[in-house]
Amino acid sequence: MFANRVKQIAPSPTLALGAKVRAMRAQGKDVISFAMGEPDFPTPEPICEEAIRAIREGFTHYTDSRGTLELREEISRKLLEENHIHASPDQIVVSCGAKHALFNALMAICNPGDEVILLAPCWMTYREQAILAGAVPVVVETPAQNQYLPVFEDIQRAITPRTKAIIINSPCNPTGAVFPRNTLKEIASLALRHGFFIISDEIYEKHIYDGNSHTSIASLSQEVAKQTITINGVSKSFAMTGWRIGYASAPLDIAEAMATIQDQVTSNPSGISQKAALAALRLDSKLIHKMLQDFDSRRCFMAEELASVSGAKFCLPKGAFYIFAEFDGAIGNKIKNDIELVNYLLENYEVACIPGSVFEGPGKLRLTYALPHEQIREGIQRLSEGIRSLN
Ligand code: PLP
User: pLDDT-based confidence at 72, cuts 50/70/90?
Assistant: First the structure.
């Protein structure tokens, strides 16, 4: 009955788990969730005010399909000043979230049978969207003992004449890895030598800790920029996940192709949200700085609490807002895999995590630290009891 493509992809397990948590809460259960992938802070007031003003002033109609010129000019400025990427407003397409921008990118460049290299563990949407675009995902592991950074030779081995693109995500969901400049240079050198695209998902660029800094791969040189599609958005940096504004900057012909696809699928993302995104990009950075400091303190706190859980092993994340951990001894006789472990913890200890297999990292769990200290303490205590009960 359904098209074959439906059978090839899975619904988002993160969203499904979120629905299960909501249902348990509706039954009066006090679930602590380390599952969600969004900041728990409210969207800053000046951003909300701008959206309200847009509605009051009647900014409620279609805009340019690829986003208003005003917003694309602001993104162009932001990319130049913060990321050292030269992209004119024509090279920018504003979409319904970074997820949509990524989909446009894959749809614009992939033909059936093209290969897209993914660096795992990685956000599950990369695989599913590559398949929807007719491409074949090729997974290259980033080893935990290498701080989840890719090994040059491993990427090299995965390249074939059909390689169309590599997707990179630094800071990384779920591992928190931040790619150093040298790693980016290595990836860029392979893309230039073999002529494939780099899709660089930089949605967590502001969530970066311990003095590490974010480098946009498109800033390495003009040649690299000509083969790079940079994906970003306001969801994570400005606590705006529900507003659905993401964007891509790309070489002009690719941006045109992405805009044409968007023309025929969604038209413009919400004009009101575009006004809000404009306010976000112009926001006093102090407002964001405070949120980021809180994330850093929660990161350290969760790492300390987690270290006392029996058998816990993890790398302290350098970016994003997740800890990717495994628990020696938890998976074995009673519990067969990470999915069973997540269900066991949720049903018996009312604490929710995401199974690592969702990110091509089986046997591990992803825990978000985007929640207040007291909840982190209580949640880790529950997790600890759950894990102990299995040892
Ligand atoms: N990229 C990564 C790595 C993510 O983790 C997410 C959201 O979880 C997104 C992109 C999607 O961002 P948006 O909400 O702007 O679609």
Answer: very high
Contact at 8 Å (CB) between 118 and 138? yes
Q: Answer yes or no: are the C-beta atoms of 262 and 66 closer than 8 Å.
A: yes
Label residue 14 by pLDDT band (50, 70, 90). confident
Average of per-residue pLDDT across 300-307 = 97
Our answer on whether the CB atom of 299 is closer than 6 Å to any ligand 1 atom is no
C-alpha angle 82-85-91 in degrees, rounded to nearest 5 = 120
Q: Which of 220, 211, 145 is nearest to 178 (CA)?
A: 211
Q: Which of 104, 123, 200, 321 to mutate to test the pocket of ligand 1 (most atoms within 8 A of CB)?
A: 123
Distances (CA, A) of 40 to 124, 238, 305, 372: 22, 11, 20, 9
Residue 29 token pair: 């259960």
Residues of the chain with pLDDT > 70, as a percent, come to 100
**CA-derived radius of gyration, the chain:** 21
For residue 212, with 0-12 CB atoms within 10 Å meaning exposed, 13-18 middle and 19 or more buried, which class applies? middle
Q: Ligand 1 pocket: which of 36, 75, 173, 273 to mutate (most atoms <8 Å of CB)?
A: 173
Say if residue 12's pLDDT is above 80. Answer: no
Residues with Cβ < 8 Å from 150, sequence gap 6 or more? 119, 140, 142, 179, 183, 187
Distance 44 CA to ligand 1 centre (A): 19
